Amino acid sequence: MSVPHITGVKICGLTEEAGFDACVEHGADWIGFVFFARSPRFVTPQRAASLAARGPGRAKTVGLFVHPQDEDIARVLEHAPLDILQIYASDARAQDVAHRFGLPVWLSIPVAGREELPTSCPVQRLLIEPRPPKDATRPGGNAQKLDWSLLAGWAPAFPWMLAGGLRPDNVAEAVGVTGVPAVDVSSGVESAPGIKDPALIASFVQNARGVREG
Question: What is 8-208's CATH number, 3.10.20.90, 3.40.50.1000, 3.20.20.70, 3.40.50.360?
Answer without folding.
Answer: 3.20.20.70
